[in-house]
Specification:
Elements: H1 6-11, H2 14-32, E1 38-41, H3 42-49, E2 58-61
Parallel strand pairs: 1-2
Length: about 70
């Protein structure tokens, strides 16, 4: 579950967040033997994840219409 949180984004760089997400991703993949799915907010995706983790399926939280994601 990856969502926008101003404390997180104001405390850590994009690179630091991506490194931690990669660690989590790899541990989940190793444990389950399957590609994890990221449940994301569109804000977090557009700010941090756009262009990253291209093989990881996304479940986008959007309550009204299609989510507007970069790339």
């Amino acid at each position: 579950d990856l969502e926008y949180d101003s404390n997180c984004i104001n405390t850590y760089t994009k690179e630091q967040l991506l490194k931690e997400i990669q660690v989590m991703h790899d541990r989940l993949y190793q444990h389950y033997g399957k590609q994890p799915i990221f449940y994301i907010s569109k804000s977090f995706y557009n700010i941090i994840l756009a262009g990253e983790f291209s093989k990881t399926p996304l479940w986008v939280r959007e309550y009204q219409g299609k989510p507007d994601l970069k790339g």
